[in-house]
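Hypothesis: this fold can be encoded by more than one sequence.
Test: take the structure tokens below, design a sequence, compare later.
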């Protein structure tokens, strides 16, 4: 299928598809007229790439993960990649916890139940 057809099938823009290809995440054959020709598996692969991007993984890790999703994945490498993905997940959880703590602190300040250190009980702002 051509790039426009893949774009329609996946919702990814042609520009994104060219970017994925440039990053080594997606491959195509070139027709004699220079058009890209993608196989049917490209639809599933683009959906997976988009999911991994939404999950916060960078291109480098996605590029390394993709071979592990093949019908016959490479031996050994996938275990290390899964450990790296777990690290990314754990870092996201740590950041999420920190954001929650910060939001709760701001909520306490805004509700008047907490006062920043050094203000001696004065409200942060008055309504």
């Amino acid at each position: 299928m051509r790039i426009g057809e893949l774009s329609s099938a996946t919702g990814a823009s042609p520009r994104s598809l060219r970017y994925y290809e440039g990053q080594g995440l997606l491959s195509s054959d070139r027709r004699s007229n220079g058009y890209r020709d993608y196989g049917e598996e490209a639809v599933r692969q683009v959906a997976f790439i988009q999911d991994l991007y939404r999950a916060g993984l960078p291109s480098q890790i996605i590029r390394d993960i993709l071979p592990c999703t093949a019908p016959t994945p490479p031996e050994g490498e996938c275990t290390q990649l899964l450990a790296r993905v777990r690290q990314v997940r754990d870092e996201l959880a740590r950041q999420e916890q920190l954001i929650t703590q910060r939001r709760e602190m701001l909520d306490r300040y805004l509700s008047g139940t907490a006062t920043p250190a050094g203000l001696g009980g004065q409200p942060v702002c008055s309504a």
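The first helix runs from residue 3 to 10. The mean pLDDT is 87.
Hypothesis status: open.
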